[in-house]
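re: that complex we talked abt at group meeting.

here r the seqs, copy pasted straight from the sheet so there may be weird spacing, ignore it
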Amino acid sequence: MPRSRASVIAVSLALVGVLAACSSGISTSSQSTQDAVKKASGIPAGTVLNIGDQQQLLATLLQASGQLRGLPYTLNFVQFGSGPLVDAGFAANRIDAGFMGDLPATVAVSSHLPVKAVAVALPVGASLFLVAQPGINSIAQLKGKPVAYTTGTAQQALALRALGQAGLTQKDVHQVDVTLQQLGTVLQSGAADASILSVQQKIDFQETHPGAKVLATNATAKPPSYDYVLATTSALASPARKAALADFLKRYVAAIKGRRPAPTSTSTTTTSTSSTRPRRRQNRSWPPAGC
Amino acid sequence: MLNPLPITAAVQQSLQMVVGLIASAGAIPASFSVASLFSPDVTSYFNPIVQP
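got the structure back, here u go
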């Protein structure tokens, strides 16, 4: 079940404490260069933009592409483990904008979070897979069986889409509701007969279970599964943060499209990152495994 | 990879279909409108950034 507003807020309260204890940052800019860049961009000095990331994927993408160079504002990546937790970050007023899958975006609406959609992205190719134990060759065979997916995430949306293709609903299977990071483990252990897996989880499972079949993917299931960029109405009402968000989106688009920024003689990157959970093995596929 | 796209009526319709899907699956008590997530002002400001 999607989280109620109360539960989102409850989670957010827990997050506030964790976030306060897990912050770290880097700064490599010279003050004079930063001031010059900020003046040229029209973004006032002192502007801070807090972006909800998942498993450091946004931060990694932008850093690897060089798109964080010359930021005319302070950018903080706040790390979350799933889309519902990004929603919780919104509820806690911890972030100005965040990325998530479509189901968490609907939860943001049902939870009455003060956010608006600013952009979407469509995965190119499959990044989520409904994978079954060897011997299960169709979605219809999952009726009455344990199927793993995480409530409130894009994985749940894919599971429901896939089940619907075979005329099944959530009530026709026994949901194994675990964290995104455990979706591969429950399939490996046999606790689930099928699970929604990320690219890396799928590779890991099929290495040890060569007969395992992919029954559906997010590239084939209908309706299309978009990822969403949501921003708070507070950030959108602030000319400075709105302009910073527009700049950030330009850099994100450039990073996705593989464009590199023009070389600069002096780095003006100012970023920091904080996390809501301990570090764990990272899945570097994109989009996030479980947005 | 992700392909950034502008927000269109088709995008909004797709999200509404997701709500219908999870409602019909019994995952939520009833369907609801996602219209409040979208703002013409916000869309017109940010859409040019993600134009293909």
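couple things i noticed - The first strand of chain A starts at residue 23 and ends at 27. Residues 123 and 212 of chain A are 24 Å apart (CA to CA).
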